[in-house]
Write a structure and sequence with these properties.
With 255 residues, chain A is an alpha/beta fold. Helices cover 40% and strands 23% of the residues of chain A. Chain A has a domain of 104 residues: Rossmann fold. Chain A starts with a strand and ends in an 8-residue tail after the last helix. The chains are: A alpha/beta (255), B mainly alpha (335), C mainly alpha (298). The interface between B and C is large, with 45 and 47 residues.
């Protein structure tokens, strides 16, 4: 069991965005978290990644408690993430973005940078190699020196996934990785996600609205509504669950 | 793009260096020479400001305050007999330490609060300098600060710093040192992490960078160089007063930085030289200097937030983006 | 400042005198901090030029009184109107174009504006201090405290102004809108509030009240181009400690600071009185980075 969430709650001025949620993420699986808008999915990611402090409850990564740690410490423990509104370093180039993503794996600080020490040299070489690798993995090798605003929406999404992956985290949280993308690009991202798990062995936990994609991709699905878990199971089980169908009011989010 | 490309070539900078070294033989007018020396000195402080503000994106408005601390540090130490060559690093380190102490409580908070605190701190430094009469001599300041002690170089005899030429080479040496340090810092993963903090602090945290640590580091280093410049200023000028730490100075450096180009290494130097020189030519406007600066600052931050040098790279980006999109469109059409 | 009375047997009088001065000082701080906190709550960035706008208010009334022979009250009203317009101009030119950019850009723009204001005043009127004739000379003795009419006026006018502002904020539509935007900008925008005119209006009120405070206080102290910088700085300290967008915080903080300064300045070192506020700020921020009553920054 990679990640365990126990009785997690987050209240905003009296409103419970996440209400007593308990779940597990197993190592090596692709878990999808779905639910109507406002169900608390992104807030849940925020709590796990340290951006938000829980009102109550605990989070454990491989048995170690990480509740309430600052985001950069949680990243260092091995949780990577993307954001719903694509977050990139848009004043910099593609390879800069990836290099920054790899920074936590380098150890050189102020003095080694100043003296161009051995460690600095090593860091630089390793980073260059990893960046090259990541560029190829997400298919942005040709755009390495381009500035982020020149990339298309799909390319930006791929880059944000690349940034989250490059440090080889144990688990990656993808918050709506295909929002605002057309079908062709969505399939591209789906293939990329399958590759993440297959090639890198990184556990994937994703939030998605496109049910067809989720059914195809996920091995397990957790459904949230009003901040609570209302169902959990395989795609088969979920699609037949009456509560789930009711939560979506009979409509589907067609991919 | 040819015009921009030459800025990337090594030989251009070698040429600049040669020019800088040969400068005393090219400029004989004493007054002009002093302007050049000031330009070098303020380049050092502006490069410092560039690190915390340009690269890390934090609005430190106390820069002249730290310059003042460095100046008073050297002034008081040198007057009590300590050699300039010991007083200067000590003073710069003291300045960095004070910066650290101020930064600790305030860089943890929102950027607006940091800006306010640094603004206030600059004013406080002036007030303390003016009122702590026993230590600083009050508003009349400190006078009679000795020049840097003569340096003895093996086989070459002694260099003393009474001539402007020697002072120029001294300042130039420190400027080159500053440039070396800045170059190594910003063209590195560390420099990238500063820019990450500036660009998107939340994302920087999400990828494992500690934003607070990055901000503190760049703030302390920036203040070290402010103190360094202040210390040299005190020794060369011979006298300082609380107005050495005035906000007017911070403001001027802000203008040099913004106009010259933020987050570049050439920008601060360009600004620190070009603008005072320009002002020399516009002597009639000296009274209105700060009004013009103020208006320029507003205009530049709204329309050219990256300044002159930054403008070049923005231009390059835009051109590339244009060509990139055309190629993309073409391939989409071709199928 | 009135000379301190001798310590023997008159400690109480000295103390009360300082309290009176503190209340007067606090009134000024409260008004200035109030305007600042409203704007800070709306814009989300501090208006660094606030102190300098206060200073300009004093100079405008000085100008009108000496050159055009305006009476004290006419000059005050005129100054409020003129500064309201200047405030709207500043919002439009200095802040609005940078609304969606990183905050640091607004800081820099504001610094440019503040320099323009300060230097313009120096160019027109010189760097030295000026005196505004005191319209209400004369004093009254109460409880052994000597109160000048002018100082009493400041206190009373401040109370009136603050009360009027409270009524405006709580009871009128524009006022409640301003408060709503100050407390939750995104929410207000979702409901369809036009943030542009709210910003302009808030700025106008903020600068007009600052001008009023400046005009009231000007006959007591001298006016100088740098009088705004220090005051602005203290207003920021008050606003951070009292909570952004919180009117009670600004008012309470203003009076507390005024009293602290008067009492501290009277009994401890007068020269360093300005440093106390700053020291308090650093201390509080070390313990509570969001300020005393601050909101959690998301």
């Amino acid at each position: 069991m990679l990640l365990q969430v126990k009785n997690l709650s987050k209240h905003f001025a009296g409103l419970a965005a996440v209400d007593d949620v308990s779940l597990q993420v197993r190592e090596g699986e692709i878990l999808a978290i779905v639910g109507p808008n406002g169900a608390g999915k992104s807030v849940l990611f925020g709590l796990i990644s340290g951006l938000l402090r829980p009102t109550s409850g605990q989070i454990y990564l491989q048995g170690e408690e990480i509740t309430g740690l600052k985001p950069h410490l949680i990243a260092r423990k091995g949780i990577g993430r993307t954001f719903q509104t694509t977050a990139l370093f848009d004043q910099l180039r593609v390879l800069d973005n990836l290099a920054i993503g790899y920074r936590l794996c380098t150890s050189g600080g102020f003095w080694s940078t100043l003296s161009h020490s051995h460690r600095w040299e090593e860091d630089k070489n390793r980073t260059t190699a990893k960046v090259m690798e990541a560029l190829h993995f997400v298919g942005l090798a040709e755009k390495a020196f381009h500035f982020v605003p020149t990339l298309s929406q799909a390319e930006q999404k791929r880059l944000s996934i690349g940034i989250a992956l490059i440090s080889q985290p144990k688990m990656i949280l993808l918050d709506e990785p295909t929002s605002a993308l057309i079908l062709e690009d969505t399939e591209q991202i789906t293939d990329l996600i399958k590759k993440i798990y297959r090639v890198r062995g990184i556990t994937v936990c994703l939030i998605e609205h496109k049910m067809r994609m989720v059914m195809d991709l996920a091995q397990r699905i957790i459904v949230l509504n009003f901040g609570r878990v209302i169902a959990e199971g395989t795609p088969e089980e979920i699609s037949k669950n009456p509560e789930v169908i009711e939560a979506y009011l009979g409509g589907e989010y067609v991919a | 793009m040819a015009a921009i490309k030459f800025l990337r070539k090594k030989w251009f900078y070698v040429l600049l260096l040669v020019l800088a070294l040969a400068l005393p033989f090219l400029i004989t007018n004493r007054y002009h020479f002093q302007i050049v020396i000031m330009g070098c000195l303020f380049s050092i402080s502006t490069l410092g400001l560039n690190l915390i503000l340009g690269y890390t994106g934090q609005a430190s408005l106390a820069h002249a305050g730290f310059f003042g601390i460095g100046a008073y540090g050297v002034a008081l130490m040198a007057k009590s007999g300590i050699s300039f060559w010991l007083a200067l690093p000590l003073s710069a380190l003291l300045t960095a330490l004070i910066g650290f102490l101020i930064g600790l409580p305030t860089l943890r908070t929102r950027g607006s609060y940091f800006a306010i605190v640094t603004l206030c701190f600059g004013v406080i430094v002036s007030i303390v300098a003016g009122n702590w009469i026993d230590l600083t001599g009050g508003y009349t300041g400190v006078v009679g600060i000795p020049l840097p002690n003569p340096l003895s170089i093996p086989l070459a005899g002694e260099i003393n710093f009474q001539s402007l030429v020697a002072q120029y080479y001294l300042v130039l040496a420190f400027l080159l040192f500053t440039l070396l340090v800045m170059h190594r810092l910003v063209y590195s993963l560390l420099g990238l992490s500063f820019m990450a903090i500036r660009n998107n602090e939340v994302l920087a945290g999400a990828v494992g960078i500690n934003p607070f640590a990055g901000k503190i580091l760049s703030f302390v280093v920036a203040n070290f160089f402010a103190g360094l410049a202040g210390g040299i200023y005190a020794s060369l000028m011979g006298s300082i007063s609380p107005s050495t730490a005035s906000f007017e100075l911070t403001f001027s450096w802000l203008v040099y930085l913004l106009l010259g180009g933020v987050a570049t290494l050439a920008g601060p130097i360009l600004g620190a030289f070009a603008i005072p020189v320009l002002m020399e030519y516009l002597q009639s406007l000296v009274e209105y200097r700060l009004i013009i600066f103020g208006a320029l600052l507003i205009a530049v931050i709204i329309y050219f937030p990256r300044g002159l040098m930054g403008g070049f790279s923005t231009l390059e980006e835009r051109v590339r983006a244009f060509y990139g999109r055309r190629r993309g469109a073409k391939s989409a059409v071709a199928g | 400042m009135l000379p301190a009375t001798p310590a023997d047997g008159k400690c109480m009088h000295l103390f009360l005198q300082q309290v009176f001065n503190g209340v007067m000082l606090g009134s000024t701080y409260a008004i200035v901090a109030l305007g600042l906190t409203l704007v800070f709550g709306i814009l989300n960035v501090p208006n660094f030029a606030h102190g300098h706008l206060y200073m300009l208010g004093a100079y405008v009334s000085f100008f009108l009184m000496t050159l055009y022979g305006f009476g004290f009250w006419t000059a005050l009203i005129a100054s409020m109107v003129i500064l309201a317009l200047v405030g709207i101009l500043i919002e439009r030119v200095v802040y609005r174009p940078l609304r969606d950019k990183p905050h640091i850009n607004s800081f820099i723009s504001a610094v440019g504006a503040l320099m323009i204001l300060e230097t313009s005043v120096i160019v027109f009127w010189g760097p030295q201090g000026r005196r505004i004739p005191n319209p209400y000379p004369g004093t009254v003795e109460l409880l052994g405290i000597t109160m000048t009419y002018q100082r009493l006026l400041v206190i009373m006018a401040a109370i009136v102004l603050i009360a009027l502002l409270q009524i405006f904020i709580k009871k009128t539509t524009p006022g409640t809108t301003i408060e709503a935007v100050a407390q939750n900008r995104e929410g207000a925008m979702l409901v369809g509030v036009n943030v542009n005119w709210v910003s302009s209006l808030t700025f106008a009120i903020s600068t007009a009240t600052a001008a009023a405070a400046a005009c009231l206080v000007a006959p007591i102290f001298m006016i100088s181009p740098t009088m705004g910088a220090l005051l602005g700085m203290k207003a920021f300290v008050i606003v951070i400690l009292g909570g952004l967008g919180s009117i009670p915080g600004a008012i309470l903080g203003g009076y507390i600071l005024g009293l602290l300064e008067a009492i501290g300045g009277g009994y401890l070192s007068a020269a360093y009185k300005d440093v106390y506020a700053f020291g308090a700020l650093i201390l509080i921020l070390s313990i509570r980075p969001t300020g005393l009553f601050g909101r959690e920054v998301s």
